[in-house]
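User: Okay, second chain of the day. Same drill as before: sequence in, structure tokens out.
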Amino acid sequence: MPTTNTIVLATVGTLATGILGAPSKPQIASASLPTTPLAPTIHHDARPRVPFRSCDYTRQLTSKSAIYFDHRRRTDPNFRKSLKKEVKKQARAAREQAELDQKREREFVKIRVAEAKEDGFPHDSDEKESYFMVEVEKGERLQADGSNFEAALCFYKALKVYPSPADLITIYDKTVSKPVLDLLAEMIAADEELQVGPFAGSASDSGIAGVPLD
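Assistant: Same drill. Structure tokens below.
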């Protein structure tokens, strides 16, 4: 009768080799197997590594270019002359572009003012007051959102129905931001029917929504 130790050893042997008493596999001589050379290992990430010194080289090249440029500027009269000519050319181009942008803006202002006048304005006192409040509140909201042109257009419409435009301009001058005021001034200039006083250019925190219409 097998002992406990024999049973334990038999169980471990079964797990390791499969079946107890199974014949061992015949050994195959290594000489009978053909020798196949191993393929070389290919690294897919074979990108060239940029040496750290390349950054220093770039800085040195930039520094040398600056030194060369400064040397030519100080010693070559023709180079200085061409450089000044290029600077003047760029300044003139920037000035012409600014004038063109301003001209386009004025044309756009005229178009929007003409559209507002074509839409018409209320004539009844109650309608004027309601129209005024709506346009002023809308203008303040648009100004807070950064929509300066649309805000100025709302303030212009409110100005059209206010009984004393010069007084309202004084209030605008204390409450409306300068970019919006500049656009509003262009809209007023585009409307020959609207006569107001000059802008005072002061600043205040007072509101304009509660201005009554008499």
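Confidence is low (pLDDT under 50) at residues 2-26, 28-33, 200-214.

User: Thanks, on to the next one.
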